Predict the 3D structure of the following.
Amino acid sequence: MKNIGVQLYTLRAEMKQNLQETLEKVADIGFKEVEFAGYFENKPHDIRRLLDELGLTAPAAHIAYQDLGISLAEAIENAQLLGHQYLVNPWIDEPIREQPDGWRRIAEVFNRAGEQCKRSGIQFCYHNHHFEFVPLNGELPYDILLQECDPNLVKMELDLCWITLAGKDPKDYFQHYLGRFPLVHLKQLKRLPTQDFRVALPFDQVFPELSEVGPGVIDWKQQLSLSLSAGVQHYFVEHDVAKFPFDSIQQSYRYLKELNF
């Protein structure tokens, strides 16, 4: 595999404590790409210099939903400086999602953000969890986003673990919405919890089932073959609650480097 990166949210505590040492360890493992989830009060100029010194690139970064308004201009400026090709919203608070026509309102916000990003040469994306696949008035929120968002302005960073947890097949989305998924997140499930897919599982029931990229519920040879044919450009390993984050990302990296498909 080429373009194996790491979502630095996995290392958020380490990033907050010492960003430079964290990125040095990431580079030592062998990663060439990183996806930021905050800069932890470090200046973008300093981060860019460090990335260049370590031979790292940062094709993407996560951005909070509340920063898709006035603050978006600054995020775009930082993205251009740091070489981000993608700005990704990874989370929407529940009160916003639960508003009347909440997901269609969200799609409107995404289209506006996507248009502003596009003018500056940046692609806007959305990253899913599992609640986007829980039916709402007979519709799936994820489907609403794909249908209501302009495909040129808003693309998706598909988390292959969360969509699997939701009981959906990534293949269906890769094939039906070809070209909408330039980025994916990779982590494994030890097992599929018993659940009613009409409701979202509490996160405290999900987190114990997450694991590094490796053997488990997800068939990586199948999923990665599908993602390549679907036009995925970047693959970021992630573990939301890794007990030993550096060991976790190293294990995922080694597995992917040795995987033949």
User: Anything to note?
Assistant: The chain is about 40% helix and 15% strand.
